[in-house]
Every structure is written in structure tokens, then in C-alpha cells.
Specification:
Layout lengths: L13 H6 L4 E9 L5 E9 L9 H11 L2 H19 L4 E6 L1 H8 L7 H5 L7 E5 L8 H14 L2 E7 L6 H7 L3 E4 L1 H4 L6 H17 L2 E4 L5 H10 L3 E3 L16 H7 L14 H4 L4 H7 L5 E3 L4 H10 L5 E6 L2 E7 H8 L4 H5 L14 E3 L4 H9 L5 H4 L1 E5 L2 E6 L1 H18 L9 H13 L4 E9 L1 H8 L1 H17 L7 E6 L2 E6 L4 H15 L6 H6 L1 E5 L5 E5 L2 E9 L10 H15 L6 E4 L1 H17 L3
Parallel strand pairs: 2-3, 3-4, 4-5, 5-6, 6-7, 7-8, 9-10, 12-13, 20-21
Antiparallel strand pairs: 1-2, 1-8, 10-11, 13-14, 15-17, 15-20, 16-17, 18-19
Helix pairs in contact: 4-6, 13-19, 17-19, 21-22, 22-23
């Protein structure tokens, strides 16, 4: 018989670890972006080094299984406070507590913060964080607990906001002094427009509620600069320092340089397609909705006639049953029938469905604008004559006409194009102006580069709009490729006009590379014979036969000085001067022109004088 192996030693119980004081504390700095100083530290607990219980998750999972989670929280706080005082760290100490532990802390008999005072720390230096795992069954009864903490001098924070139990409900009802945004929303925020919009919404509410925001999980410079430029005041993450038993007493050089960086962030743009410009179709449906009475299916033709006579502008009437449309009667066709001899006498008392369209075009209010646009291009064109029915969750809401449908879709397309070009999906005029305003408002030096394509119109005329669109998309790809997305902004003004706002130091090399790559690549859009000929034959604007070379890229740039540029600069003036530089670039062999600051001022003044001298 084989001898039995000696039994493996069981992991120590949590109570034993607490009794042996076998817990240790580490601290992670929290940075104030305004002055780059360390605002305070979050105290975090660790189990015995090199054991399965070293990680806090394993430690608290075991405590929960043993039924002593609150005891572990109190021991962890005691350990963190003691270590914090021994280190003689400056600033505040952030401590994590569950809702149950906070209740016990506030209800201590000898003092509201007996645990803290016992360790000799001023409660005003303490921030109590409600952990995301906590659930509060009765928020109303928890409010006095928060009041007790504040009365004792401590602050209250909502931890890991945006996940688990850290909800808007708690924020509104508990009114925390500090809200820590969960790292999920901060990681890669520089390139994720949805995370950016979510954090911006949190920021708006923080401004309204008076809470201070701390962005958790900052791990790189790009995310830091986006968060900084959004106006969030504090941050925490590996970029500033990992949790350590001997935490840094000052911000690292890399972090300080990033906080003081002269360039501003390029905020990630949410692409506004037709559906995102009107997510539920509500804006388009509201534009074309005609509030009109409907008739029940039991109504007679005489009832229809009476309704049309009372409402001479009504183009149609819907027939409904239980609130749902079942048919549509067009005014013109109905009245034409009634004009026939004896028609009213023969059919007046008969059901109105006899002359109704039993399968009308129906548009639900939630229909996207893309779906409405597809309806315009479909083979079923009955809506042009009959109009259509608009429903709200299947119930009759009103009528619409073909003319209103075309107008509504067109207006939404135009509005969407102001935010994002529908061909390239690059930011349109409104985001372009907004980014220039941010650059000017932050005194950030930059280069505004206006991009245009030489000989594009003749190419478009020769090869057609579809091929012309492919050239424009190729230009957008080339320009995007030379941009640093964290520093450089690319917008599509319209047609073959683009605008680049460079903050990269090597901006000129990027511009010249874009011109070279585009000029080489654009030739592939020509037929072999035209490539051999070096271009195409066409007509100039006066109708004269002309030979046009290949489509090429021209870029005119203007330098906008930081701190002290002309005070009358605006986004429109900058775009105008860059456009003038572009016109010069179109006549240069290199396709590139740079206008310096003094020349741009002269050009602006010249434009102003010309405008004033022009007759009204």
C-alpha cells in the first residue's frame, strides 16, 4: 500500500490574518490636473505576499464566504490609515467601504469616526468611497449615515461610477462630494466617441450637482489630455503611478509634461449619419406630419364627402379600426368619382372602403431617415399621389404627403452633412468650427491647411459622379493617414475641399507626404489610354477645348500663432485665409504654399477693406 501524501495546509482564515496583522497597504496617487500636484492617495489592501490571498479580490471573496467581510473592511481601513500616517504622506486618504461597513463606521458609539481618530488622522483628510459592489436596499435610511460622516469632517465619494450599483439614482439621492468615473469609460476614451459622450454627460451632471470628478484608469497621454481638456479636474491610473507600499510623493516627469502639453486634444467625433442625426426618425416625421381626422371603417361615402367639403385642404382621409389604419382615401380620385352622374345617389350610403386604397403606404414615427430615403427610391410610388399614413406604435397619428416626405428627408440630409460628410463621414462644418474655436480659446498654436483637388471637375464630368466619389474617398483616406488622431483634426468642408488643423510638430512632412501619395495613387482611377496620355481632353469653363492633367492635391497653409496671435481671428477668418493660400498652392508645382502670420493679417485686412468698399 502506497503511503498517503501529507495533507496540504489549508489557507488561513480571514480572522486569523486579521488577528496576526498579516495585511499590508499600498497606495495609488490621485492627481489634481490644475497644478499637477498629488491631491491624495487611494489606500488599497493586500493579503500575505506570494499566497493565493494576496490579491484583494481573492481576499474579499474569502471573507464573504466566511461571513466576515465587514470585519475585513475595518481591518483594511485600519491598516491603510496606520501605514498612511507612518509614511507621513500629504493630501487626502481615500478608503473603500461597502454600505454595511459605512453604516457601522458612522454608528460607532464613542465617535462617528472612532476608527479614524484612534489612528490619529484628521477626519477632514478622509474620503469614504462607497464601493461598486454595494447595494443599498433603502437609500432613504442611508442618508443620515452620510450626514454623520460629513458632520465628523469626512467627505463621501461614489466609486466606479457607471458600473454595477454606482448609478444615477445614487448620485442624485446621496449627492456625493466626489464621483470616481469607472476605468471602463476612461480607457481608450481618446478614440472612442461613445465613451467620450458618456463621460461628457457625467461631467454636465457633476457641474450641476457640485460633485468633483476623478477619472480612474488613465494609462496613457492621449486619454489624459482628452480628460484634461474636457474639464475633469482629477485623475488616477497607471500613467501617474501603480499601487505601491512606498508611493511617489510627486508627479512623474512624463505626467507633468503631459498635463502641461501645449496642444489640445482632438475629441473623438461620433459619426452622424442620417439615422444618428434623427435616431428615431422623430425630427423627420414631425416635419411632415399633418394632423388630420380619420373615419371609422363603418363610415359611408357620404361621410367622406362631408369631411372633404368641411376641410378643403385635406388631401386624403385615413380609415381606421381600433385606432389602427386600414385604408386611405385620396381626395382627388374620390371627388372625380363623385362628379359622375348619379354616383352619390348610387354609392353615397355604401361603406367608404368601396373606393379606398386598402394597402396604403404607412410610415411609423420611429422609422429612420435611411428607411424613408429608401421609400423615395422604391418602385412603389403611390405616396406621390395618395400621400401616406403616419403611425405611432401602430396607432394612427396623422397623414403625410409625398412633397413633405421629399422635403423632410432633404432637410435632414443637409443638417446631417453639417456635422459629418455623408460620403467620407469626416466631420463637417459645425465640428470644424467648434474645433477651431477650442484651439483659439486655449491659445494653442496650429497650422490650418486647406486642401483642394486640381482638375477634379473635368475628371468628374468625364468619368461620372460614382468614380469622382471614389477619388474623394481616396483623398480622405490619404489625409487621415498622415494625421496623428490625438493632435490633428481632419474635416470635410464639402465637394473636393478638406481642412486639416495640425498640431503635430512635423506637420509639413505630413502635408508633403499626403500630396505625394495622393498624386501617385490618383492615376489608377484613369483608363489606361488616359494614363498614357497624361490626362484627359475636355472643356474649360468657357467651353473651350482643353487638355487636363491628372487630378492632383493642392494644400495651402496658414500659421496661427499661440499666445498673441491676431485678436480678430475667428474660425471663419482662418478658413478664409487658408482658402486663399490654397488658391496660390493650385498654381505651384509642389502643390504647397505656407502663409506666415504677418501675411495672413494683411490678407484679412485686405478682405475687410474690400468688403467695406463693396456697394450695398
Amino acid at each position: 500500500m502506497q503511503p498517503l501524501s501529507p495533507p496540504r495546509s489549508a489557507a488561513p482564515r480571514i480572522e486569523e490574518l486579521i488577528a496576526r496583522r498579516d495585511l499590508s497597504a499600498v497606495f495609488q496617487p490621485i492627481i489634481d490636473f490644475n497644478d499637477g500636484a498629488i491631491l491624495g492617495y487611494e489606500g488599497l489592501i493586500r493579503g500575505p505576499a506570494g499566497t493565493p490571498l494576496e490579491a484583494p479580490y481573492a481576499l474579499f471573496s474569502q471573507a464573504l464566504a466566511e461571513g466576515c467581510a465587514i470585519e475585513l473592511e475595518r481591518a483594511a481601513a485600519h491598516t491603510c490609515i496606520k501605514a498612511f500616517m507612518q509614511l507621513e504622506c500629504e493630501g487626502k486618504l481615500f478608503l473603500n467601504f461597502s454600505a454595511g461597513a459605512i453604516r457601522q463606521l458612522a454608528e460607532a458609539r464613542d465617535d462617528s469616526l472612532a476608527l479614524l481618530r484612534h489612528c490619529g488622522v484628521d477626519p477632514q483628510r478622509i474620503v469614504i468611497e462607497l464601493t461598486e459592489q454595494s447595494t443599498i436596499a433603502d437609500v432613504g435610511s442611508f442618508l443620515p449615515v452620510i450626514t454623520a460622516l460629513r458632520t465628523a469632517g469626512a467627505q463621501f465619494a461614489l466609486d466606479d461610477y457607471g458600473t454595477a450599483n454606482a448609478s444615477m439614482n445614487l448620485w442624485v439621492r446621496l449627492q456625493p462630494d466626489v464621483v470616481k468615473i469607472d476605468r471602463f469609460f476612461i480607457h481608450d476614451i481618446a478614440s472612442d466617441p461613445l465613451k467620450f459622450e458618456a463621460v461628457r454627460a457625467m461631467q454636465h451632471f457633476a457641474n450641476a450637482s457640485g460633485a468633483r470628478l476623478v477619472a480612474e484608469g488613465i494609462e496613457n497621454e492621449a486619454d489624459l489630455i482628452v480628460v484634461r481638456d474636457m474639464g475633469i479636474g482629477c485623475g488616477q491610473g497607471y500613467f501617474f503611478g501603480r499601487p505601491n507600499a512606498q508611493p511617489s510623493r510627486s508627479v512623474t516627469d512624463d505626467a507633468r509634461e503631459a498635463l502641461r502639453a501645449g496642444h489640445i486634444a482632438v475629441f473623438p467625433e461620433t459619426t452622424r449619419t442620417l439615422s444618428s442625426a434623427s435616431p428615431s426618425g422623430g425630427m423627420a416625421s414631425a416635419k411632415m406630419l399633418v394632423h388630420a381626422p380619420a373615419l371609422p371603417r363603418e363610415a359611408s361615402n357620404n361621410d367622406v364627402l362631408d369631411l372633404f367639403n368641411r376641410l378643403p385642404d385635406l388631401h386624403a382621409v385615413a380609415v381606421v379600426e381600433h385606432g389602427e389604419p386600414v385604408a386611405l382615401i385620396n381626395r382627388r380620385s374620390f371627388m372625380d368619382r363623385y362628379a359622375l352622374p348619379y354616383h352619390r345617389e348610387l354609392f353615397g350610403k355604401r361603406p367608404c372602403l368601396q373606393f379606398a386604397n386598402a394597402s396604403p403606404v404607412v410610415i411609423e414615427k420611429s422609422m429612420t431617415v435611411e428607411q424613408m430615403a429608401q421609400l423615395l427610391a422604391s418602385d412603389d410610388q403611390r405616396y406621390l399621389a395618395d400621400g401616406f399614413v403616419i403611425t405611432d406604435n401602430g396607432k394612427y397619428a396623422g397623414l403625410g404627403t409625398g412633397e413633405k416626405l421629399v422635403r423632410a428627408v432633404t432637410e435632414v440630409r443637409i443638417e446631417a452633412a453639417r456635422y459629418a460628410n455623408p460620403l467620407t463621414f469626416l466631420p463637417g462644418n459645425i465640428p470644424i468650427s467648434s474645433h477651431i474655436a477650442r484651439l483659439l480659446g486655449n491659445d494653442a498654436g496650429f497650422y490650418a491647411c486647406y486642401v483642394d483637388l486640381n482638375h477634379f471637375k473635368p475628371f468628374n464630368d468625364q468619368y461620372g459622379y460614382w468614380q469622382g466619389d471614389e477619388v474623394l474617398k481616396f483623398a480622405a483616406v490619404v489625409l487621415a493617414d498622415v494625421c496623428d488622431p490625438t493632435r490633428d483634426f481632419l474635416g470635410h468642408v464639402g465637394g473636393d475641399d478638406f481642412l486639416l488643423l495640425f498640431q503635430s510638430d512635423d506637420w509639413k512632412e505630413r502635408v508633403l507626404r499626403a500630396i505625394h501619395v495622393f498624386n501617385e495613387g490618383a492615376q489608377r482611377f484613369y483608363a489606361p489610354a488616359d494614363r498614357l496620355a497624361g490626362g484627359i481632353h475636355g472643356e474649360d469653363r468657357r467651353g473651350n477645348p482643353t487638355f487636363f492633367g491628372f487630378v492632383t492635391m493642392a494644400i495651402g497653409c496658414v500659421r496661427v500663432e499661440p499666445d498673441g496671435g491676431p485678436s480678430f481671428y475667428s474660425s471663419e477668418e482662418i478658413a478664409s485665409v487658408a482658402a486663399l493660400a490654397k488658391r496660390r498652392a493650385k498654381h505651384e508645382t509642389s502643390g504647397f504654399v505656407l502663409i506666415d502670420a504677418s501675411e495672413s493679417v494683411a490678407l484679412l485686412r485686405g478682405q475687410t477693406e474690400v468688403a467695406h468698399a463693396a456697394p450695398n
